[in-house]
Each structure stands twice: as C-alpha cells, then as structure tokens.
Amino acid sequence: MALLNPGQGVASRVFTKSLGSPALGTVAAVLAAVTDDGTEQTITTGFTQPPTPRVLTSSTAGTTTDIKAIQVTVNGLDEGGNVISEVMPIFTVNTATTVTGLKVFATITSFVIPAHDGVLATTSLGLGNTLGVGELLDKNTLIHGFFGGVLEGTKPTLLFNATALESNTVLFNSALDASEVIITYYETP
After folding, report:
1. Are both 53 and 136 inside the same structural domain?
2. What angle do CA 49, 47, 23 make, to 5 degrees?
3. Which of 129, 150, 177 is where one domain is finished?
4. Are residues 145 and 111 in the same domain?
5. Of 38, 57, 68, 88, which has fewest CB within 10 angstroms of its CB?
6. How far apart are CA 23 and CA 129, in angstroms?
7. Helix %, strand %, coil % for the chain, to 5?
8. Phi/psi at 166 (nearest 5 deg)?
9. pLDDT tens track, the chain, 189 positions
C-alpha cells in the first residue's frame, strides 16, 4: 500500500510480511552432536536446514574437561542465495556452552569444528530465536510485530544493515512456538 506524506512530499510504502511459523530453536536442530576426533572436522552432510531463515547457535557438551575455547565456522547461503560465512563466538573452556551467531542463514553447506582438548567433547549446531527479515533495510523502520495474530505488547528488536542481507534481523519478545510471525515496516525512497 503506497502512502504519500503531503507535508514533505515524500512517498512511503508500508509492508506487512510473514516470517513463517517458526518453532523455538533447539541446540541440535540443524546438526546433532559431533564427537571430537582430535582433528579439525569439516562437516558437509547431515544438516536439517532451517525451516525459517534465522541465526544459528552452536553448543558444546560431553566431558567438560575436554571442551576447548574454540570458535566454529558456519558456511552457507543467506535468504537471497548469497554465500555467507560466520565465525561463531568462542566457547568457554571446560564448560558446556551455547553461543549464538549474528548472521541469518537460509541454508547451511558446511560446519568447521576445530579440535577440542579431548575426544569426549561434542559440538552441535542449532537454531536461534532471531529471524531473518529478508530485506535490506537502511534504518529501523519496524512499525509492529504480530505473534500468533496478536500485536506484540513490546515492539520486537530489529537490527538493520543496508548492504548485508544476513544482518537484517528481528527478535520477538514472545517465545517462538510455531505460531505465525508477522512484521509491519515501512520503506522510504
């Protein structure tokens, strides 16, 4: 729907966009725990692709004294089919940890896990709760967020980037539960 602001003579467009019906993210939703083998491992198969483009998480588990302060790398595609890569935040040594990335992935093509301190550590790849907007935005133009058909009482958090599609994200205050998520935003020329 196009609107005209007569006071400024600037055209503005308001959009309503469904981001799907995402469920709450879990720590091994994309890739089950991979057991350390003492070497860097590059995983290229066995992924369950995100049903809705979103940020990813990575988690360590197993014998905590075998967990090393490493950073895993995720490679894949953004919502526009562009190749992206993200080095995830560092794990805490000797502690089972879940870290959350910042980039939105639509598809995962590989997951690189450096060696831990011992072979009883595991690393998995999961889904975060921050969703992709799927648009390049140059400012925070979010008007509303709807969760399960209900207007969110607290406006969702929108991060924007005019050049990197994977960095345009929205985080709702309600816990995702497979209810439809809708955002309303405006675009100016």
Report:
1. no
2. 40
3. 129
4. no
5. 38
6. 9
7. 5, 45, 50
8. -70, -10
9. 344 444 555 556 899 999 999 999 899 999 999 999 999 999 999 999 999 999 999 999 999 999 999 999 999 999 999 999 999 999 999 999 999 999 999 999 999 999 999 999 999 999 999 999 999 999 999 999 999 999 999 999 999 999 999 999 999 999 999 999 999 998 866
Of 85, 101, 129, the position where a domain reaches its end is 129
| Cα end-to-end span (Å), the chain | 14
Q: What is the DSSP letter of 28?
A: T
**Helical spans, DSSP H, in 76-130:** none
Query: Is 121 a domain residue?
Result: yes
Would 6 be classed as within a structural domain? Answer: yes
